[in-house]
Amino acid sequence: MQLTKFSNINGALAAATCTLLAGVSNAQADEKSNDWQFDTAIMYYGEPDRVQAVEGVVSATKDFGDEHVFSTKLVLDTLTGASANGAVAQTSAQTFTRPSGNGEYTIEAGDTPLDDTFRDTRVQLNLAWNQPWGANQKVGAGLHISNEYDYLSVALNANYALDFNRKNTTVSVAASYAADEYSPEGGIPLALSKMAIRSDFANEDAFKAGFDDTRIGESENKDTLDVIFGLSQVINRRWLVQFNYGYSQVDGYLTDPFKVVSLVDDTGSALGHYYESRPDSRSKHSIFAQSKYHFDSLIWDMSYRLASDDWGIDSHTLESRLYIPLSDSAWITPHVRYYQQSAADFYRPFVQGDLAEYMSADYRIGQMTAYTLGLKYTQKLSDGDELSMRLEYYQQTPENSGFNSPGQLADVDLYPSVSAVIFQLGYKF
C-alpha cells in the first residue's frame, strides 16, 4: 500500500541547504535558468528470504524564469519475494490458502508463515508547479498518481509559504488529499472470517463455495487528508532550523486483506486463521524538528519526529546526516536513523478465546525498534554533473508488548527480526 507523499513545504530551508552544500565543491557548472535539470537513480532493497525490490526514479525540473518552476518525477518499481501473513509459527508444518484462492503453500515447522506469492509493479507520476506570489510569498500545486496491479492512488496537493524578517523566517502550510482504490487479487475478505483450507472441505466445489463465503466484494476505497504547518528560521549564516506540525486523517478501508490472525488453544496449537479487522478511520498528529549547522567544512543535519495516532501507536524517529568533504569536488555522508514505536491497541500476535471487533497480527503495527546505518558518496564531475552511491543497512526488531506465549508458542520465534540491504546509484545532470 503506497502512502501519499507531498513535497517539502519549506523551500527557503531547502534552498539555503543547497547553497551550503554547493560550498563543498568549487566545480560548479554554468547553468542557464531555462535548462532542464535531471536527477536519476536506481535502488535495490533486499530482505534475506523475504522481499526484494528494484526501483528506478527519473526527476526533471525546469525554471521558466522568475522562479516559475515546473517539476516532475517518474517512479517504476518491482517487488518480489515473501511477506509475513500474520499467522503464528507452529512446531509442525502448516498449510495456507493463497490470497487468490487458487493454490496453497506449506510452511515448515518452526518457520514464520510467509506468503511467497508477493509480487507487485508500481508506476508513479508526480507533477508540480511552484511560483512566487508577490514579493515575499510562494504558492504551488501538484498532482500525484500511483498505480499498482491491485491499487490506485490519485492525490492533489497545494502549498503556500510567506517570508518575512528580511526573509530569515518562513511560515508555510501544505495540504494533500488522496483518493485510493484497493482491488486485491481474490477480492476483499470478510473481516474475522476463517481462512478456507482445502483439506477442510469434501471436494473442490465445496472449497470454492467456502472461499467465496469469505469475500465481500472486489474493491474498497479510502480517502486521506494530510496538512502540515511549518516554520523555518535562519539563526545565523551557519545555522538553520525548521519546525513542522502535521495532521493526517484517513477514512475508509484500512484493513490489510492479505493478513490473518491465528486463533490458538491453551497448548498454543492453531485452531484456525482469521482475516484481520482494523478500524475504518485513523487520525494522526506529528511534530517535527530539524537543525542544519554549517561548520567550517562540515554540515550536520539532525532531525526528530514525534508521532501519535488514535490507534494507540506512538513513535519516535531520530535521524542524523553529516556531510564531510573529501576534496573540492567530493564528499561523503554518513547516515544514522533510529526508530521506536508502541503497538496499536488492537495488535495481537495471536488470539485465545473470543475474537475481538478489531485485531491484527501485522508486526508493522506492533511494538518495535529499528535502525538504519548508511554511507553516501557524492562526486562532482568536471562538466558539473553529479554521481552518487549510497549503501545502507536496515534492522527492524519487533518486540513483545506483554503477551504470554502458551504451550508450543514458547518454543518458536513469534517476533523475528527483519534486516535489509539498500543500495542506490544516482546521477544528476
Give me the secondary-structure topology.
Elements (H helix, E strand, L loop, with lengths): L10 H12 L13 E11 L5 E12 L5 E16 L9 E4 L6 E4 L6 E19 L4 E12 L2 E14 L4 E14 L5 E2 L14 H9 L2 E3 L2 E17 L2 E14 L7 E5 L5 E6 L5 E14 L4 E11 L4 E12 L4 E12 L26 E13 L5 E13 L19 E11 L1
Antiparallel strand pairs: 1-2, 1-22, 2-3, 3-6, 4-5, 6-7, 7-8, 8-9, 9-12, 10-11, 12-13, 13-16, 14-15, 16-17, 17-18, 18-19, 19-20, 20-21, 21-22
Radius of gyration: 24 Å
Secondary structure: number of strands = 22
Q: Total number of helical segments? A: 2
* Overall helicity: under 10%
Strand order, main sheet: write it out: 1-2-3-6-7-8-9-12-13-16-17-18-19-20-21-22
Main sheet: strands, sense, barrel: 16 strands, antiparallel, barrel
Indicate the structural class.
mainly beta
Mean pLDDT: 91
Large-scale geometry: elongated
Order of helices and strands: HEEEEEEEEEEHEEEEEEEEEEEE
Low-confidence regions: 1-33
| Percent strand | over 45%
Termini separation comes to: 32 Å
Write a structural description.
With 429 residues, this protein is mainly β. 5% of the residues lie in helices and 56% in strands. The chain has two helices and 22 strands. Strands 1-2-3-6-7-8-9-12-13-16-17-18-19-20-21-22 form a 16-stranded antiparallel barrel. Strand 8 and strand 9 form a beta hairpin. The longest helix has 12 residues. It is elongated and about 75 Å long. The N terminus is likely disordered.
